[in-house]
Amino acid sequence: MGLAGAEAGVLRRRRRFPVLRAILHSRPATVGWLLLIAFVLMAAIGPSLAPHDPTQQQLLLRLRAPSFRLGADHFHPMGTDQLGRDIFSRVIYGSRISLLIGFTVVISGGVIGCGVGIAAGYFRGWVERIAMRVVDIYLAFPFILLALIVIAVLGASLTNLILVLAFTGWVNYARVARGEVLSLREREYVVAARVMGARSGRILVRHLLPNIMPTIIVLASLQIGGVVIQAGALSFLGLGVPPPTPDWGRMLAEGRDYMATAWWLATFPGLALVLLVLSVNLVGDWLRDYLDPQRQGGGGS
């Protein structure tokens, strides 16, 4: 009994935390998750980490090189910009904007796109024709042109930036969800539920949605990086978050004129943007492998 109990205990411990073991089994996944958690923590406790007010201007301290000397006027690990604002503090607060945009756009666009795609794939007929024609119209418009039109009409703001990105990103979810539902709607369990008199809403929620969620989760994780880059590109062009709110894209735009004399203005925001996109892409690749039913145990390589 004692030996059997010990073996059972070992098996139970091995079965604990399978996701954590799968992450640690893959070095890229470990790096991606650590980076992503670091960015989330930085955004969550940003005010406690930032040594300075990110919007405070001190012209006497403008274009200071990175310095780790202690003191209110000397501790600038990433230097200061052309207005004397601390780059380190602005990068920390900028992470909140980037993560807020990324997750909000992906969630809202995913809800809209999945609803449209599932309805089009299940009901077919005129529902599918109308939905897919709307998708084709959205795909025919260049993203930058649509963003210019919307922001020119509504004005540049964080809310409008999120709206633009969400209403242009839902089409990817709609196409993927429609394709998945088309392959599932004639499966035996769906046909059996329909024969037993289950309503369409129940079939969609109980049978189809859970089976397409792994694919949608992977797509969403990979979309976050693209959304962050799009938001940064719009801010770089002056169409994103208006100043003085710290934003990595605007910081890159402000630092491009000082690359020869103050390299840190654009280097650190650009590095933060690269690391955030890299982290979500590594996590997305791991999720794709982990949620793939063809792979036993997941984890990637």
Features:
single chain; 301 residues; mainly alpha; MetI-like fold; two-stranded antiparallel ribbon; 12 helices; elongated
Instruction: Tell me the number of structural domains.
Output: 1
Range of strand content: under 5%
What is the topology, as strand order, of the major beta sheet? 1-2
Question: Given this structure, which CATH class is correct?
Answer: Mainly Alpha
**CATH-level-2 architecture:** Orthogonal Bundle
Per DSSP, the total helix count is: 12
Please identify which CATH superfamily we are dealing with. MetI-like
Q: Name the poorly predicted regions.
A: 296-301
Order of helices and strands: HHHHEEHHHHHHHH
Concise overview:
The chain has 12 helices and 2 strands, in the order ααααββαααααααα. It is mostly helical and 301 residues long.
Give a written overview of the molecule.
It is a single chain. The chain is mostly helical and 301 residues long. 72% of the residues lie in helices and 1% in strands. Strand 1 and strand 2 (75-76) form a beta hairpin. Helix 3 (27-44) crosses helix 5 (87-123), helix 6 (125-140) crosses helix 8 (158-184) and helix 11 (248-255) packs antiparallel against helix 12 (264-290). The longest helix is centred in the middle third of the chain and has 37 residues, at 87-123. The radius of gyration is 24 Å and the shape is elongated.
